Each structure stands twice: as C-alpha cells, then as structure tokens.
Amino acid sequence: MPKKQEQKLMLLKAVDGIVGSNWTILEEGEGDWKSHAAAIAQSIQVIKKRLQWKKLMVRLDLLSAELNKSDLWNDPVHASKISREHGSLMGKMKEVKAFEQELLEHIDMIKLAKEENDSELESESMEALLRMRRDSKDKELEALLAGEHDSCSCYIEVQAGAGGTESMDWAAMVMQMYKSWAQRRGYRVTIVDEMPGEIAGIKRATIKVDGEYAFGYAKAEIGVHRLVRISPFDSGKRRHTSFAAVAVIPILGDGSTHVQINESDLRIERFRSGGAGGQHANTTDSAVRIVHIPTGITATCQNERSQHQNKASAMAVLQSRLDQLEMARQAQMNSQHTQSLTEISWGNQIRTYVLHPYRMVKDLRTNYEVSDPDSVLEGDLDSFILSYLSASLDNDEDEQ
Length: 400
What we know:
about 45% helix, translation release factor activity, codon specific, Alpha-Beta Plaits, PCRF, Pep_chain_release_fac_I_sf, PrfB, protein biosynthesis
C-alpha cells in the first residue's frame, strides 16, 4: 500500500477509534483531555456525514481525472467549472484532514507531557484541545452549507394564498419576517417587486438578499406557511386560517449561469408602477415586465427610479429563474430548489404559526416548535433553519 494511503487509513482508524472508545463527554469546563478529544472526534464524524464524505471523495477522483484530460481546455467554460468545483471540494477535504491530524497531534503531546511530568506542555495541549472543541461546532455548522449553490445570494418570493385580505396580510407578515431575518444576519435586502393587496398586505413580493450563504440558509424556508389567528379584518372576531407560499432562488455567479437568454425570446412590457413609491411613482411608464416566451416565465420590477434600472433588475430575476429551472431539469428534482406556488393550501404546509387559541410555531418537517411566535415573526428563524438543514442531511445520509 502506498505511504499516503496508509497514513490516511491510520488517521481514519484513529479518529473512529476515539469515538469507539466511548469516552465520556462532559461539559467544556468539567472535561478532561479524553472528554475533549471524544467531543472533537464526534464532531469530525458529524462533519463528514454532512459533507457526504464518500460521495465527496468519489467526486474528487472523477474531477481529477477530468482535469488531467489533454483536451479539457478546448471548452474553457466547462474547464473553468470543473476547476472551480475541484478546488472547492479539495479545500473541504484538506480542511477536515488537517483538523483530524491536529487532534491526534495534541493527544500525542498530552500523553508525552504526562509521561515526562511536563505540566506546562500538558496545560498548553489541554488549551489547544479546548479551542479545537469550540471550533468544531462552527465547522459542524459550516458543513450544513456545503451544497453547490449554498454560498450564493438569493431571491425570496412570497405569494398570498386563497383567502383575500386575510391571506394578503399574512403574506406581508411573512415577507417582513424574512426582511428582519436577513438584516439580523447582516445581509443586504433590496425590494425587487411588490404587488400590494387592495385593502391590506401583498398579493406577492420579491426581495433580493445579498450575502454569503444567503441561499444556503433561506432554502430551508421553501414551501407553504400556515397562520391560525383571530382575523383583524373579521368584525365577528372569528378564527381564520391563511396560507402564504415561499420560493427561494439562488443567484448564480457570472461564470455559473446555465441558460443563455436570446433577446428574440423576450417580450418586454412597460407599465405605470403602482403602490407606494414617492413623487416619481405613477408618473411614467417606468415599471417593466419581461416574459420569456419559450417557457412563459415572467419577471417584474417597478421599484427602481428609471425604466432602464427596472429592466436590468427584471432581467437579473429572469436569469435566476431560468437557471433554477435548468438546474431542476438536470437534477430531476425541482423541490430541491423551489416549490410550486400553485398549491398554496391545506396539506402542503411546512410550518404552522398559531396565534389563537394558544401560541406556537411548529415546523411540520422536523417537529421542532417554539412557544413564542412573536420572536419568530420578528426574524428569529435560525433555530428552525438549522434544525431543518441538519435533519435533511441526516436523512440523506440514512438513505444512501
């Protein structure tokens, strides 16, 4: 066996051996070196599981073989894509391997310090293990966002379901929830399009969320969201159930678009913008709707000050929607990227928000729930998102 392969095998056995030793894992402040080492080794196993380690290694081998082909750069776009993916996966693999190696080195140093009664070396090694233990939790979180497009910015779309004003008000609440969530995370939020309801709320709206891993987190929100409350629009103070659908679309980088858009395939419609917009609104036909004739996909923007800016924004949304459609076609599983906004009704919801007769928010995919709906509606969504992402990856691994 080649030396490198032998070292990899020894490393794997060592980390698995630590987990197999069943060393008791105590709280950080109470634990000894074995407790810290066991917690770190356990985290490494979680990280590998979330990265789908076996698949990652197979994919790396395939990409390496592709990169070694003499005619690879005859197609620069394809070659660039292969090179980027190889570099990304190689970086993830090396980072985990280095973390494993660091754990084993610190364990060796502690054993050596004990043998030689070197209390200073032992203390330094214990501190290093404790730092690794804390770092491992961050690495577990990073491994949740290892999908091809997870690091991208995204569009979040919200559409009201059947139910008139009540559902439109709920759709506006959902959109505000995402704006607050994005701002909490330090993302930049831009309103792309908004169609207000006749009395209150919105019929639909789209925002752009700019920031690293915006899509990776927000994809957990794809689906139908259900609200149960006493309607503020019902004079009889009866309880109402409302639905709003959420779609999330990744914004791919310049070199990653899947679909070329031909101008001849577009129908561009200009109209007068409506709703709030200050002095400039409703005075010119500055709003733009672009229809991609072959697919029927549309994109609208009316929130910029000029027709030129609205057209540019609408084209960006259209490009993302067409890319998303192509990704779904290639993967043959559209639900990975977005969910149809046509089935906004009973039986399709992912999360229920109850404000009456009791107070609760429950995710129906993971059964995770909290009893403080106000905080959730104010943008405190991370616990729901992380719970779902973790469960999804665990399920994927179990099905392999």
